[in-house]
Specification:
Elements: H1 3-16, H2 20-92, E1 98-102, E2 108-111, E3 122-128, E4 134-140, H3 142-194, H4 209-258, H5 263-295, E5 303-306, H6 307-324, E6 328-334, E7 338-341, H7 343-359, E8 366-374, E9 377-384, H8 416-426, E10 430-435, E11 441-448, H9 454-458
Helix pairs in contact: 1-3, 2-3, 3-4, 4-5, 5-8, 6-7, 7-8
């Protein structure tokens, strides 16, 4: 399948993808409207119940007040006084009540509004007097029922309005809420269709979860784009660096094959091929180690190590090289500094820094290695008075296969400092450089310090 067919296929798959943001917006609108309607309906029911309870309580209080009043009048003036009081109130009172007085034989001796005395439509209160007579006061529930009926009609209209407002507001609110998600989906879809990672989602001004997601997505795209650029640059550098040893391999083999049969010539050619093969293998293994360290997949056999011992082993490897270049390789401050680290990997870090310093220090120069304990950090420092590093190259010296202009005359892969940075950061440490062109450079490795072993502490 051609790349054009693949692009068409990607566009087809992207265009046929379900509208996730649309379904999410619909679900969000339904949930919002349902919650709003349920809450409003609960408030309406509570309001109706409180109103009905309040009206019933009011009627009950009126009945109890009338019962007390009539019982007092009857106790003072008898049935005649009570009859006069009831008749007077029936003519003037705004709150019309029904009154009935029963004697000991349950005969009605006083009955107001006899035509309206229907227990089915009345709320009745009763009090028994000292002489055995019974006073009953009733109040019609029709007025209360009428008020509640009109209140229910009003609440029904309000509820319908709330439903309409909830649906409309929910749709508008969710459409506004999912707009950043739609922009995010569109950006992802364009990236899938075009394969370009320079797309960015417009960041809104809202400081919320969606805005934070947009910012993080753009940062992720920046990181991916940087990694892609780095991979392309690394591939260019690898292809360039591999081309030279592979060309040498091929040239050496062709010269050996084209010359007259000579076992000694064949032996030299094979030795050259082995040397170039080793160079390629070292480059590939170093690249793999860097990738493992950066991704956190590198296995580290951590133990408490003294940086002084690590430095001593690394210095032993380069004394002869330094003597051959007439470079003084010496130790400076050597304080006890413990770190919880992989001693092999840490020795590779020290060896790379010492090798780098010796390589770029001219004859008669000096390389000094210090070990120190600063607070809770174990510090390794490699200082030289060599050619130094130009300021514009300092930010890039940690990149894979980067070699500055001043370093191209020296043999190397351009991976040493990348390896150092990856290993140190895998141990939770940092590595920094300070340099002035013509005055040398100082590389500082800082690792979390380890506690003294218990056996040594007790001694």
């Amino acid at each position: 399948m051609s790349s054009a067919d693949e692009a068409v296929g990607r566009r087809g798959r992207a265009s046929s993808a379900p509208d996730v943001s649309g379904r999410f917006g619909l679900r969000l609108a339904v949930w919002y409207a349902s919650l709003f309607i349920a809450s409003s309906f609960a408030i309406v029911l509570l309001t109706y119940w409180l109103t009905a309870s309040s009206l019933a309580q009011r009627d009950h209080e009126i009945i109890q007040a009338k019962l007390g009043e009539y019982a007092t009048v009857y106790a003072r003036g008898g049935l005649r006084a009570l009859t006069a009081t009831v008749q007077a109130e029936q003519r003037t009172s705004r709150e019309r009540v029904f009154v009935r007085v029963l004697d000991r034989g349950a005969e009605a001796v006083l009955l107001s509004n006899a035509e309206g005395w229907d227990p089915a439509t009345l709320e009745v209160g009763t009090v028994t007097l000292l002489d055995g007579s019974i006073i009953q006061v009733g109040k019609s529930t029709e007025a209360r029922s009428d008020i509640l009926a009109r209140f229910r009609a009003t609440l029904g209209f309000v509820t319908l309005s709330i439903i309409l407002i909830a649906l409309t507001g929910g749709w508008i609110a969710t459409q506004s809420a999912v707009l950043p998600i739609r922009r995010l989906s569109s950006a992802v879809r364009r990236i899938i269709e075009t394969g370009r990672t320079d797309e960015r989602v417009p960041a809104g001004s809202d400081d919320d979860a969606v805005g934070e997601l947009t910012v993080l997505f753009n940062q992720m795209l920046d990181r991916i784009e940087g990694l892609v650029r780095g991979m392309r640059g690394a591939l260019d550098n690898v292809s360039h660096d591999l081309r030279t040893p592979l060309t040498r391999l091929r040239g050496t083999a062709e010269l050996a094959l084209g010359a007259a049969p000579d076992p000694e010539r064949y032996r030299e050619a094979l030795a050259d091929c082995v040397e170039e093969s080793d160079r390629v293998l070292v480059m590939l293994n170093t690249l793999m180690d860097i990738s493992e360290a950066e991704s956190g997949a590198m296995p580290l056999k951590r133990e408490v190590v003294d940086l002084r011992e690590v430095v001593a082993r690394a210095l032993d490897l380069y004394h002869d090289v330094a003597d051959a270049k007439d470079v003084a390789l010496q130790t400076g401050r050597q304080e006890r500094a413990l770190a919880l680290a992989d001693p092999v990997r840490l020795e590779q870090v020290a060896a790379n820094l010492i090798d780098n310093a010796v390589k770029y220090t001219p004859a008669g120069g000096r390389v000094q290695v210090d070990v120190d304990r600063v607070g809770d950090r174990a510090v390794l420092r490699v200082q030289d008075n060599g050619i130094g590093i130009p300021g514009e190259e300092l930010p890039r010296i940690w990149e894979r296969l980067f070699r500055g202009d001043s370093s191209r005359t020296a043999r190397g892969l351009g991976l040493g400092l990348s390896f150092v940075k990856a290993i140190v950061e895998a141990h939770g440490g940092t590595v920094d450089v300070a340099s002035t062109p013509g005055s040398g450079a100082t590389f500082t490795v800082s690792l979390p310090a380890a506690q003294e072993p218990a056996a040594l502490t007790q001694m």
